[in-house]
Amino acid sequence: MNHLSCVSTEQLPTTDRLGKWAQCVSQYAGRLPPPVLLNEASIIEPFNQRRFRGKLEFGDLGDLRFCRMAASAHRYRRALRSEHSIDVGNWTLVLQESGISQFTQSGRSVSLSPGEFVLLDMNQALDVTSSRGCEQIIMPVGERSVGQARSGRLYHLACEGGLGRMLFNLLHDSVAHYNHLSERASRALGDSLLEVLDHAFEQVSSDHDFDVRGTSRLDLVRQCIEERLHDPELNAETVAAALGWSSRSLHRYFHDALGCTFSDYMWQQRLTRCAEQLQDPVHSNLSITDIAYQLGFSSSSHFSRSFKSSFGMSPRAYRQARSA
Question: HTH araC/xylS-type domain: from which residue to which, for each copy (predicted)?
Fold first, then answer.
């Protein structure tokens, strides 16, 4: 039977623990060819350094490698030491299991919710923010499985049905029951995952141009909320009315598709945007209150309590830590 290997921050020396953790993420989650690993420079920026915890569990399904990562709130930045081109495509598929993570690559951003995939070009720089922590399954895939993928693109795959849902179930269950699988069964599941991924990506690529993607229900809901984050009166009723849905349908959709409430999602999006602006030099001329009020908060005390609950420190301390 198989056994998952494990590395956690608790096992790492306190001296340069974050640097060692970044190396572990590259080695065990990225699992990329040596030329790619040697060309990357990764940094982990916890929102609360003293409370940061991370765990990696990894194994193989035949030729397919995977890693399940759980980490508290942090930002992951991956830069390239040189811009020389690599002829071979290196792609990684990420399944979000919990939390919401913001992926940014080549000028494009994707907000990944539980049950969704993103396909990343690992020959490019990458920025990932998980403002309340995350659990993810990370799986490097060969160029053969995503042959139609274009270099420098960020691909987003929801799992509302069809092949996306099949891919989610197969990957999630393979990892969850990994310790009960024989080597032969593991290889068969790995082959099946690559086959389903190939067809799912082919279907999505032909159905959508990811530069203008926005026809799925999930995208419509997100866009509707994003456009109204500044409005203090934003609530489920106004979003449902804008979408032509009933409030009950919208609440049920959040429960079934995202595993959270509308209110939780809305406030977390506001807090994430506030955190981004607090660390962005472009907004250094704005006070903390100005930033909060521009993103829909109507009470400074409510914002400060919510921010500290999510990020483990006050907005002021967070801003100072980012600029230090």
Answer: 219-321
Domain boundaries, the chain: 5-207, 217-323
> Percentage helix, strand, coil, to 5, in the chain?
45, 25, 30
CATH topology of domain 217-323: Arc Repressor Mutant, subunit A (1.10.10)
Q: How far is CA 83 from CA 123, 125, 227, 272, 303, in A?
A: 9, 10, 35, 30, 41
| Cβ partners under 8 Å of residue 1, min gap 6 | 179, 180, 181, 182
Is 16 in contact with 32 (CB distance < 8 Å)?
no
Tokens in use for 147? 């042959």
Please write the tens of the pLDDT for every residue from 112-157: 888 889 989 888 899 998 888 899 999 998 766 666 667 767 788 7
Q: What is the pTM of this model?
A: 0.73
pLDDT digits (tens, 9 = 90+) for 65-94: 999 999 998 989 999 888 665 666 788 999
